[in-house]
Amino acid sequence: MKKKPGFMTSMTLITTVIVFLLLTVTMFLSNIITFFLIRKGWLPFHPSEPPVPMLLQNAFISIVVGTVLTFFVVHLPLRPIQTLIQAIHEVARGNFQTKIYIEHPREFRELSKSFNQMTDELSGIEMLRSDFINNFSHEFKSPIVSISGFARLMKSGNLTEEEQQEYLDIIISESARLSELSTNVLNLSKVESMTLLTDFTCYNLSEQIRQCVVMLEAKWTQKNITFQLDMEELILMGNEALLTQVWTNLIDNAIKFSPEGSTIAIALTKDDTAAHVSIRDEGIGIEPEKQKYIFDKFYQADTSHSVAGNGLGLSLVSRILKLHHGSVSVDSAPGRGSIFVVSLPLSQLS
């Protein structure tokens, strides 16, 4: 951890000044007390006698005065440290709302600001952890309850063949939802633990996107969706496996929220600074006030749950792109679809 310039020098200076003042005041008070005791006749003084007894008397008085002064003065510089120690104990007990406010000296004021920033971060992390557990429990429990319920109905045997097929389809769909949820959680956990990307390879970005479209063919043909591809041929240096997840999630979302018979357009261009991939659909769109939350874990803009999802795909997309020093943005409005734009810096291109 980097030390702030001059911090230790300033603290050393403060400590030196305090010690110097203590010694000076001790010596001054000791001489005054000695003089007072001699004047009152309570302390014998004979100039003709050897100075050793007098020196011992002065030393004893200095020790007594210095000890008393130190006992009272030492609390002043230690008070901020005691406040900090108490606050650290509170944080150790899990109270991340703890704050300290120390105005003087300047170094302790900066320390208190840093401490408060730390507790704010810890509080935010704790809130995210709690939200993650709650949301994951809900998303995980819903399909299990559904599977269990329809399995019991099928076990009763009082169903027509058409009802059995319908319930089987629901069970298969909910099982796929569970599988997708667990896969996304594992993938997100993996990329969130990464601080540096590895396994860089050179590959054709436009061909990768085409392969992702083909991979999802069963989904878009079922809804009779047409794709329009307008892509330059670009060679990218990046983690191919992770970026495949980016395009798969974005295209899959576009398919999910597009009406039957609509068109999804994908364009790949570049300018002087970055390569840009835009994916435009003709779906239901996203309200402006919800757009800033769509990359948060478990957030779903469609609160009606009319479209299957778990709210992890876009969070995964955002994290992977950050690892590539890229970005993702959305331009959308209710009733006119959405355009997701992914930008990757040209430094990623070979």
What are the defining features of this structure?
single chain, alpha+beta, Helix Hairpins, Heat Shock Protein 90, 3 domains, 5-stranded mixed beta sheet, 59% helix, 12% strand, transferase
Q: What is shown here, in short?
A:
The chain has 350 residues and is of the alpha+beta class. The chain has helices spanning 7-39, 52-73, 75-92, 106-156, 161-192, 205-215, 217-222, 240-257, 288-291, 313-323, and strands at 201-204, 226-231, 235-238, 263-270, 274-280, 327-332, 338-345.
What is the H/E string? HHHHHEHHEEHEEHHEE
- Contiguous low-pLDDT stretches (5 residues minimum) are 1-8, 303-307
Summed up, the domain count is 3
CATH class category label of the largest domain: Alpha Beta
Widest sheet: strand order?
Answer: 2-4-5-7-6
Outline the structure in words.
Keywords: ATP-binding, Kinase, Membrane, Nucleotide-binding, Phosphoprotein, Transferase, Transmembrane, Transmembrane helix, Two-component regulatory system. The chain is an alpha+beta fold and 350 residues long. It folds into 3 domains: 7-121, no CATH class; 132-192, Orthogonal Bundle (Helix Hairpins), CATH 1.10.287.130; 201-348, Heat Shock Protein 90 (2-Layer Sandwich), CATH 3.30.565. The chain has helices spanning 7-39, 52-73, 75-92, 106-156, 161-192, 205-215, 217-222, 240-257, 288-291, 313-323; strands at 201-204, 226-231, 235-238, 263-270, 274-280, 327-332, 338-345. It is elongated.
